[in-house]
Amino acid sequence: MKYILHVFILLITLQGFSQTISTLYEQSSSSVVLIKTMQTNMTFRAGIPVVNSLSNYGSGFVISNEGEILTASHLVQTAEKICVIFTDGEELLARVLYSYPLADVALIKIITPKSTPLVTVKLGNSDHSRIGDQVFIIGAPFGLRHSLSVGYISRKYKREPSYNGLVTTEFFQSDAAINKGSSGGPMFNMKGEVIGIVSFLVSQSHGFQGFGFAASSNIAKKLLLEEHAIWTGLEANFISGPIVEVLNVPQKGGILIQKVAPFSLGSIMELQGGIYEIIIENDNLILGGDIILTLDDIQLVSEESVLKAWYVLQGLKLGDSLRITILRKGKILEIKKEIPDFFFEKI
């Protein structure tokens, strides 16, 4: 009789848990959107030009009645076109407002108002989350919209203070399933508050193996909603060592530009991406683009100097100008531009 009573109590507990997850999902899922991005790349392979129209997809979630949406930076950073698809099937174009690739968080906004009221979610205080707390994720793994996965916070990763004493990244590790298309989706606590933005997974099989990561909501709030991280629109790599010698860079390091998004800061500075796709030490690189040597008076020869330059960019204001030195096709050029008004305007 005692055994039967314990089983009965366990069944009631599990049923209550299931109803809680179901209720929270129903309350939250309408705020989650599918994001499709498009861009055109021209590269040369074996001397033959190849033009590719690339599309990618991920997730995001609405945080304001004005149509602001949090998502992953890597999904939208260099996109030429961003399309947001809501639960009712309505599709609207969006643009990037702010982006911080180091933490993989971005804020985008729909260009035209939605025809029906938006459903928003609340950002929770991620500092209150603990290892062992239960979480759930809503996203679009492999394009399957509004899929639910449930798990626990396995670990917290916080980057130690770096240049200027600023903490730039903080991630939750979770065993909640994360796959391609989950990027940018919300990680919820059991109060229905967003405490993380899905970022990436670690896998040897290109599928989920229990190691998924999400940027914390507090870092996203700080970088995007308070500090308004500048959207550079660049996909770039810091290069040093032998590759610097191979490319005849006249200093010990530099920023190799891979891609540049239209209407971004990189586009305003007239930077050019690469067109020659190669593999160096198992890394895919696109060569032929500009290499940034200096930003203002900062020589980009180390990771510390690159971080210092990044914070200079974050301090740009209306009316400021930016000066860079680049290596382009063997020639050193200086570019100086005043940042136009439209770059600082919200839609």
UniProtKB/TrEMBL annotation:
<dbReference type="InterPro" id="IPR036034">
    <property type="entry name" value="PDZ_sf"/>
</dbReference>
<dbReference type="InterPro" id="IPR001940">
    <property type="entry name" value="Peptidase_S1C"/>
</dbReference>
<dbReference type="Pfam" id="PF13365">
    <property type="entry name" value="Trypsin_2"/>
</dbReference>
<keyword id="KW-0645">Protease</keyword>
<dbReference type="InterPro" id="IPR009003">
    <property type="entry name" value="Peptidase_S1_PA"/>
</dbReference>
<keyword id="KW-0378">Hydrolase</keyword>
<protein>
    <submittedName>
        <fullName>Trypsin-like peptidase domain-containing protein</fullName>
    </submittedName>
</protein>
<dbReference type="InterPro" id="IPR051201">
    <property type="entry name" value="Chloro_Bact_Ser_Proteases"/>
</dbReference>
